[in-house]
Amino acid sequence: MRIGVCPGSFDPVTNGHLDIFLRASKMFDLLIVAVFHNPNKKPLFTMQERVEMLNAATKHIHNIKVDSFSGLLNDYVRRQNSSFIVRGLRALSDFEYEFQRALLIKKIDPTMETIFMMTSNEYSFISSSGIKELAKFGGPITGLVPECLEESIIKRIFEKS
């Protein structure tokens, strides 16, 4: 069984993320979308809320499992019986950052493979931080985030403001 792991903060999940999930799900028997606990970030949503949001947003993709983890990515991927990491890219700056991370993972675990996927053009400008900023100032996020989550994202942003 070919298993891929797509890690990220997903705070919140965007349509750009969904684009990567849908396309990557066609490459694997199982795609694990894994919410990573990053101690360097102050998330808007709890890890459990992000898992729930991802479950709601990906319920139409039948070979996706949503999970969460903390610690080293390569250890998590190995525990999932995989050696494939899927990373979405929007721009050249994403590639530089992700390429360095992939090389580091490859150094500590030579069996790991990182697959880079360019997001579709229509989503290349979308980021979770951009969504939060846009919504905070009353801008529309329709079409940028999964429709089923739009209201809860806006509500949370105004609760935190």
Topology:
Elements: E1 3-8, H1 15-25, E2 30-36, H2 47-57, E3 64-69, H3 73-79, E4 84-89, H4 92-108, E5 113-118, H5 128-136, H6 150-160
Parallel strand pairs: 1-2, 1-4, 2-3, 4-5
Gross morphology = globular
How would a crystallographer describe the biggest sheet?
Answer: 5 strands, parallel
Determine the N-to-C terminus distance.
45 Å
Number of helices: 6
Helix-strand makeup class: alpha/beta
The neighbouring-strand order within the major sheet is 3-2-1-4-5
Query: Gyration radius, to the nearest Å?
Result: 15 Å
Helices and strands, in N-to-C order?
EHEHEHEHEHH
**Total number of beta strands:** 5
Beta-strand content bin: 15-25%
Measured as a percent range, the helix fraction is 40-55%
Let me know the average pLDDT: 95
Question: What would the keywords be for this entry?
Answer:
161 residues, alpha/beta, 5-stranded parallel beta sheet, 6 helices
Walk me through the structure.
The protein is an alpha/beta fold. 41% of the residues lie in helices and 19% in strands. It is built from six helices and five strands. It has helices spanning 15-25, 47-57, 73-79, 92-108, 128-136, 150-160, and strands spanning 3-8, 30-36, 64-69, 84-89, 113-118. A five-stranded parallel β-sheet has the order 3-2-1-4-5, sandwiched between helices. α2 links the parallel β2 (30-36) and β3. The mean pLDDT is 95.
